[in-house]
Amino acid sequence: MFHTKSAQETLQHLGCSSEGLSADEALKRTQRYGKNVLQQAKKRGVVAIFAQQFKGPIVYILFIAATVSFLIGEYSDAGFILAALLLNAVVGTYQEYVAGEKADALKKAIKTFVYVLRDGRRVEIPSEDVTVGDVVFFESGVKVPSDIRLLEANELQVNESLLTGESLEVGKKHDYISTDANEPIAERKNMLYGGSLVTKGRAIGVVTAVAQMTEVGKIASLLAHEKTAQPPLTARMEKFSLNIAKVIAGVALFIIMLGLSHEMPLQEIFLLTVALSVSAIPEGLPVAITVALSVASAAMSKRNVIVRKLSAIEGLGSCTLIASDKTGTMTQNRLSVASIVTPQKSYNPNEYISEHLLLGAKLCNESTSHEEDGERVFIGDQVDVALARYVLELDEELFKRHEKQKPIDALPYEPINKYSAASYQIDGEKIHFIKGSPEIVVGMCTMSEDDAKAVLLQVDEWAAKGFRNIALAYKVSDESGIAKEGYSYIGFAAIADPLREGVKEAVLKAQEAGISVAIVTGDHPNTAFFIAKELGIAQSEDEVIDGLEISRWMERGGDKGELANKRVFARVSPEQKQRIIGAFQELGHYVAVTGDGVNDAPALKFANIGIAMGKSGTDVARESSDLILTDDAFGSIVNGVEEGRVAYDNIRKVIHLLLSTGLAEIVLVVLSILFFIPMPLLPVQILWLNIVANGIQDMALAAEGAEPEVLKRKPRDPKEPIFNKIMINRIVVGGLYMGLSAFALFYTLLSFGYYEDAARNITLLLMILFENVHTFNSRSENISIFKINHAKNMLLWISVAVAQGIHIVAMYSPFMRSVLTIEPVTLQMWGTLLLLALTLVAVMEAEKFFRKKFSIS
User: Fold this and answer.
1) 3-state secondary structure of 747
2) Nearest to 482 by CA among 523, 534, 430, 532
3) Which of the pair, 854 or 360, is modelled with greater confidence?
4) Residue 477 in contact with residue 483, Cβ under 8 Å?
5) Please, what is the end-to-end C-alpha distance for the chain in angstroms?
């Protein structure tokens, strides 16, 4: 409301004066209004993160199995299960805690200070100590700490892109008073808002709101609700766990009925049921999934992506649409000169440019610069900075020669004039330079009407391409003051916010991966469309919609179908951006949203995957995200998509290995009942097989690298279950073959007079060898085992050797022999069992061949 009040009315309303606050009054107001710090989500401690790891259906099932095992006196079974859960929790806690620390480090690296009046003196204080009624001083380069009503302003220009999405500076005036209480933020010329940056001029203002009461704080309040979008991995695993529970219940019921029909003792039926339940539960799966996501997290960290939540990794791999902010994400949020256009031709930067043009760009310029850490840092209006940087890059010697030169006369840029001017004494001549709107500058030049029309036609052509055009002219004259006419036209600079390096290639890679890309920005529709067209995101203006049309769309009921073919959303508010994301989600898209500004935060929070910029992004944006890009590069998102897909592939590989073994164990137990023979494996042996002998290889599988052309595949349907036809075929074929082979071996051994324990010992060893061989079968669903580069994952070979070694040690350890009821076997038996296990390779290769031949997918 303060934009509708005069400066004096604002001071009276706030109960302060232009002389500032006293230290005592500032303290009272701080106690009343609180620190100028946005409320942040309470940081989870290590204990809370650790506790979170024990949530999830499959974990609950394992807890139940451990409890049942404990109650019936099978303490070793219970111990194995709890050990697996503990390992999973430790790994998951470490990864999420480290990610949180990295995000905090980014936040703490940025701390700002401002000058205020306290007790009549100008003092510097941290921005967080600013309070309502403080009188604050501004100059170029100062970040606005809170909402401010201007009291004085001199040629003030402010960059509000992090709040509004508009990349160009906004002129501000202290004497402007709005008549519209609902005037858009971007039009309130007498107000400064927290998070914006002063790029030019000086000003004094009074603080009208701090923390949550600022416009930034109001946007942050939209983030109060918990994120409702569920990562697809979480959804899939919940469904998977529910199916496992159903299988366990069904098989247990079958065993009970079968046992009762065979008049088996109740205790034996119960032990059989426990054994079968243990077979069906993939105890090593939670650990393997956490390892797969942790490996992906480490890989993404090397590729400049900080993962705040492990489940977001696979989610990024599932995304079907990336809704990206433009300013600072697609573009550099830094204007630069794309070309200099003269009446005759356009010059490239490396070609000859007239000295007068370079002098005009450098001297008719209000920006300043200095050396910092070996780099040139520019401060000022973005147009002036772009021209100065252009001169420096083209002719460093000229730039430095005139760097300290002061003008004789100067006329600062004013929106009403649409040009600026400056006069200099150079080599004994007085030269006047003007710079500004081409229409105004051309009107001040000596040129024919036809030449003027030709210049303006060039300007229109470049403007249609999305460029902001600044004309330059000069006049050699001894007349006093700034010359008003008679200038010689030099040309105009075509200026734009350039694309970030590599973003065009990244967008193309995303599209090749089957991912749609849309621009959602607060910037002008023409500018946004030009960028989208250059990136290949949009080809027609029919794909563009602005904030006004979106408001009308919402008033009509917000039919999601109307947005299906839109790819450029311009002049949108934070609320509209959030609604757009919701519409795409309703259309069936799994949406990843990128952004760096406060205006992006609500969409980041409510998107399926929120991706914040780490370097240029605001704290609010980072706190709202699932992933943070440390290099702010759009290309890193595509790298993240690749790692997400790899993580999901690896999880499928692990599930295939574990469930194939689980099915084999179920087949063993069921056949033993049907053929009235003892159980081929005891519950503790099954646990040893699932957690120890098999739990090492599955973690190595979780660390597999990317398969060829992983980014050439279409995105998975987020609703697609883990158990598709391919997975089911492979599990059934592998599981049945292992189960039938192991049962045949056990039955044969008993027939030849082996004791039960001896037969179990040999059968257990065969199952371990089967799993070691099956580990290599699981490396790819489609590529032949003979075409895979097996030297690429030496960890897998090591894991197989270690798993086999652990079992050998257990066979010779008195304690483990007693616990597992096992004993050493002859070398000849080892060789025979290994040959039998290797036949599994032929079976799985046949499955791949026939599946490919009959196009089963």
Assistant:
1) helix
2) 430
3) 360
4) yes
5) 61
Q: Of 820, 821, 823, 846, whose CA–CA distance to 80 is shortest?
A: 820
Cβ neighbours of residue 295 closer than 8 Å, sequence gap 6 or more: 647, 650, 702, 703
DSSP 359-407: HHHHHS---EEEEETTEEEEES-HHHHHHHHHHHHH-HHHHHHTTTPPP
pLDDT attached to residue 175: 87
Percent of the chain with pLDDT over 70: 85
Comparing 718 with 403, which gets the higher pLDDT?
A: 403
Q: What is the pLDDT of residue 285?
A: 67
- Average pLDDT of the chain is 83
* Residue 116 region by backbone torsions, left for phi larger than 0, else alpha for psi between -120 and 50, else beta: beta
Find the catalytic residue in 325, 497, 626, 649.
Answer: 325
Dihedral (CA of 681, 682, 685, 689) sign: positive
Quote the radius of gyration of the chain (alpha carbons, Å): 35
Side-chain-side CA neighbours of 152 within 13 Å: the count stands at 12
SS (H, E, C) 42-73: CCCCHHHHHHHCCCCHHHHHHHHHHHHHHHCC
Provide the 8-state DSSP code for 598: G
What pLDDT band is residue 321 in, cutting at 50, 70 and 90? very high
Correct CATH for 2-33+132-209 of 3.40.50.620, 3.90.950.10, 3.40.50.670, 2.70.150.10: 2.70.150.10
Q: Hey, what amino acid is at 611?
A: I
Query: What homologous superfamily does CATH list for 232-303+644-853?
Result: Calcium-transporting ATPase, transmembrane domain (1.20.1110.10)
Per residue in 804-839, pLDDT (tens digit) is: 999 999 999 999 999 889 999 999 999 999 999 999
d(CA 310, CA 290): 8
Instruction: Specify the higher pLDDT residue, 734 or 121.
Output: 734
Q: Which of 593, 609, 695, 708 is nearest to 649 (CA)?
A: 708
pLDDT tens profile 35-50: 888 765 566 677 877 8
Within 8 A by CB and 6+ apart from 173, the residues are 150, 153, 156, 189, 190
Under 8 Å CB-to-CB from 416, ≥6 apart: which residues? none
Residue 635: is it exposed, middle or buried by C-beta count within 10 angstroms (0-12/13-18/19+)?
A: buried
Tell me the C-alpha distance between 436 and 588, whole Å: 48
Report domain extents, the chain: 2-33+132-209, 232-303+644-853, 320-332+500-607, 336-496
pLDDT tier, 100 (very low <50, low <70, confident <90, very high otherwise)? low
User: What pTM, to 2 d.p., does this model score?
Assistant: 0.66
Q: Which tens digits make up the pLDDT trace of 611-642?
A: 887 766 666 667 668 888 887 778 888 888 88
Is residue 104 part of the annotated active site? The answer reads no
Q: Which residues pair with 117 in a beta bridge?
A: 122
Does domain 336-496 sit in CATH 3.40.1110.10? yes
User: What is the second-level CATH architecture of the domain 320-332+500-607?
Assistant: 3-Layer(aba) Sandwich (3.40)
CA–CA separation, 740 vs 512, rounded Å? 44
**For residue range 106-164, what is the model confidence (pLDDT) as tens digits?**
444 445 688 899 988 888 888 889 999 999 998 877 888 889 999 999 888 888 876 76
pLDDT in the model for residue 107: 46
For 188, left (φ over 0), alpha (ψ -120 to 50), or beta? beta
**Total number of residues shown for the chain:** 857
Phi/psi of residue 348, each to 5°? Answer: -80, 155
